[in-house]
Fold each of these.
Amino acid sequence: MDMEIFLDTAEIEEIDLFRDFIDGVTTNPSLMARSKFDNCDELIKAICGMVSGPVSVEVLSDDSDMMLEEGKRLSAIHGNVCVKLPCTLGGLRVCRQLSKIGIMTNLTLCFSSTQALLAAQCGATYVSPFIGRLDDVGHDGIGLVKEILEIYDACGYRTKVLSASVRNISHVIQSARLGAGAITMPAKILQQCFLHPLTDAGLETFRKDWNNRRTN
Ligand code: E4P
């Protein structure tokens, strides 16, 4: 099965640069706050118009009832909005309610396999283990992705594991090797996926050889 590739950004220019290579976009409140757009709804509409797949947008409310209303409102902006909810009791409760009415959900800030288990029980579309932030505090981010995938496989859950907080190419390769259903990465990491010094050196050699060819 294909691994979906999402860009972790709220920058229109970055999405435009990589739109041919991505299945969707993930945003978060920090990324939205840095965007040049003043109106969040307009920004969401603009992003949804640029990609054909899910665009994760996070709720800001703490209270479950308000989170539910916010989730429904976000989803009404565009059919591809995937409502991002925290892996908390409130977030999981809202996940169950939104899933029942067919709204896509992405359970974010997942740092344990029990949170991921509950996300799947609540019918989440995606669960996002934060690899880099776990590594930052001396834990094993990729180890968590592996554990969640094993649990989902053993129990037959359909929730997709979305590797998030990706900080380097190794996170990308290891997520793919493990069979993560999706990954989101910032533009600078996606950019690195295209690069290899031997490709550049080889191109340079080919160009030189062609330019120096005998013309008689
Ligand atoms: C995922 O959905 C988040 O937006 C993101 O991956 C967080 O990454 P960070 O830990 O680099 O902020």
Amino acid sequence: MQKTQGYAAHNHTSPLAPFNFERRDPLPNDVQIEILFCGVCHSDIHQVRNEWGNSTFPMVPGHEIVGKVTQIGSEVTQFKVGDSVGVGCMVDSCGVCPECHDHLEQYCNNAEFTYNFPDKHSGGTNYGGYSKQIVVNQNFVLQVSDKLDLAATAPLLCAGITTYSPLRHWNIGKGDKVGVVGLGGLGHMGIKFAHAFGAHVVLFTTSPSKIDDAKRLGADEVVISKNPEEMAQHLASFDFILNTVAAPHNLDAFTALLKRDGTLCLVGVPDQPHPSPSVGNLIFKRRSIAGSLIGGIKETQEMLDFCAEHNITSDVEIIPIQTINEAYERVLKSDVKYRFVIDLASL
Ligand code: NAP
Ligand code: ZN
């Protein structure tokens, strides 16, 4: 075992604080990574505050990890010391079920998540990326192109793939009218990808102050979702709406904007249920409400390669880890442009 440092929550009300712990020595198929940057996802806040009811403590959050390979196991063939790499929300899966076979490890019943999850190697708990180093099976490590800025790449490992994957699954492209609900970490990547795929992109926001930024990020139109007249101008016109909002709200306002056979895809995971949606809104135009979870490892690599080719990264505010608790408060106020990224050199 190797000693390392991170920041942890010790219970669901305590602020994050320095924490010393141990990582395993690399096994034959493991890659040891010095973490340089880690993004701050709203899921980290949900879990630190036990809003999903499944938290175990102490918890070292963080699943938007980038860094450099410092050591490899004897059977590692895909990486070498010094490579720039990433780790997202998963660190293992069963490898044999239909989901793993189809490169959709995120839907494997035995997917192992990066933190707040039992560690099958130690019998303890997985600790995430708000830390100096991590050891991960090579099959769950991503190559990061040297063309990409590392700090701005970190959020691609969760916010990026979580928006890229549903846009690809629903074949979004030229000629499609796509909505993105919420301009935060996920939302700003949703705009960038939908725009890059050639769609006509409309951002729905509760924050009028974000209109100019949304257009700069690639939105063709911006709608203030609290304004019923503005919403009514878009009735029954969307092919697809990606909803990233982290709080319960009325979904009918958005299903009403879908064309026949259109889909409202939920990726935000509020702590309380949304009000039950209107069945009438769905059946009269065969509309769907769907959900999507991150993306598989193969697709995450495809997304990172797409970003390198098209020069896409996240808009980030880089912070020292000592200000993480203030950063959480700002995320909760929707006051971040558009992802905080921790510089682990500060630890
Ligand atoms: P975020 O940066 O906080 O962005 C969420 C945005 O939603 C806010 O910027 C705000 O945008 C809007 N919003 C917040 N509260 C709202 C409210 N009460 N009513 C309407 N809009 C509101 O969060 P994030 O990191 O993008 O994560 C978003 C959600 O996705 C979280 O629940 C997270 O856990 C979940 N998530 C899911 C997956 C998955 O695989 N499905 C992966 C990662 C994260 P405006 O100011 O523009 O209104
Ligand atoms: Zn996340």
Amino acid sequence: MKTNADTYNPLTTFADLPVSERLGRAVAEQGWDAPTPIQALALPELLRGEDVVGLAQTGSGKTAAFSIPLIEALDPKTKGIQALVLVPTRELAAQVAAEITSLSRHAPVRPIVLCGGVSIGPQIKALRNRSAGLVVGTPGRILDHLQRGTLQLGTVRYLVLDEADRMLDMGFAPDVGRILSHTPDERQTALFSATMPGTIQGMVERHMRSPHRLTVEAEAPTVDTVEQLYYRVDGRDKTRALRTLIDAAEEPRVVVFRRTKHGATKLHRQLERDGYRSGLLHGGKTQSQRDKTLAAFAGGRTRILVATNVAARGLDIPDVSHVVNYDLPEDADTYVHRIGRTARAGREGVAVTLLGDSERKEFDKIRRSLPAKVHESSLPLSA
Ligand code: ADP
Ligand code: MG
């Protein structure tokens, strides 16, 4: 695999990119001054048609890094699905589709979003009716369409796995493998994530043609504008600690992570009972509930979002002030993705882990594999 040293291209402005005038205009209208480092590395490679594994911090603009070349790759004269973007959650599918729509505003490509939780009829209609060129979706529903024969992927030329390590882990790998077997071998493939454990290297190579591995060298996979703290709440009430933290924050916009749906539901109920309006996001909710909850939080109508890991990957909600690990994340990579919901695109944020007695050993293990320091702190006021 080639590395940065072979391919480094110090792209300093978007204007240097070999893209169509219409796309260049749309990029300019995003109000972005310059490409982010991963965009500077990946855009020239992808626009040349190379396969890329892009590894860069949370919130560093990976979506546009794969979306700009994707839009350029679409040929309006060709029929059939030309590009496929696979993501782990429905919310992320919607977000990626929205970014592609925004970037292609002068040459609309209208992605079709294929996710579960909503009825399949309209999706089938969309696939049949439109000269559909691009699908963004989650593996389960895409497989469903493949099995029904309502989706054909034999004409795909550009494939993206966003949150690639998640897409290739045990939970998703079989489905993703099946989906990819419906696509031609002769295709361009892009994998992006903030974390890429060595254990999936074999998988990566199986799906790609001598990919260029592009890594934005950084000390940590999370940006250093996240202040990382932990509070020991030994023998104390974590919910009370959380309330104290929220009370002390000036304009809190807090994502609180719990491991289970049950735990999230319970905490949400407690907070509401105590007068803290909050949203609840987990995989057991209907899609319309999930959409409403996320919209209310993104729009600032609720300032607290209690969620399971369904919200840990990829979501780009501006101005999240705090991420709170109410329950410990399962591993260091999950920690990285969870706290990456704050401090996006150069902003600042605080990540707080509430540490109970019994969790210390497990947390030490996580901390040891994090390059950045997590500092012990005490709760504001006296909790
Ligand atoms: P990642 O996928 O790396 O976590 P996203 O693609 O979600 O990050 O982008 C994070 C935020 O950065 C988004 O709000 C996006 O609009 C913004 N962004 C993307 N590219 C740029 C850029 N070149 N300059 C400034 N902001 C950008
Ligand atoms: Mg992303």
